[in-house]
Amino acid sequence: MKQQIIPTSEQRNVPEGELIVSKTDLKGKILYCNDVFIELSGYQEQELLGKAHNIVRHPDMPRIVFKLLWEHIQNGKEIVAYVKNLSKEGAYYWVIAFVSPSFNGEGKVVGYHSVRLKPKKEAISKIEKIYSQLVSAEKEGGIAKSQTLLEELLKKEGASYEEYILSL
Ligand SMILES: Cc1cc2nc3c(=O)[nH]c(=O)nc-3n(C[C@H](O)[C@H](O)[C@H](O)COP(=O)(O)O)c2cc1C
Question: Per its UniProt record, what InterPro entries does this chain match (predicted)?
Answer without folding.
Answer: PAS (IPR000014), PAS-like_dom_sf (IPR035965), PAS_fold_3 (IPR013655)
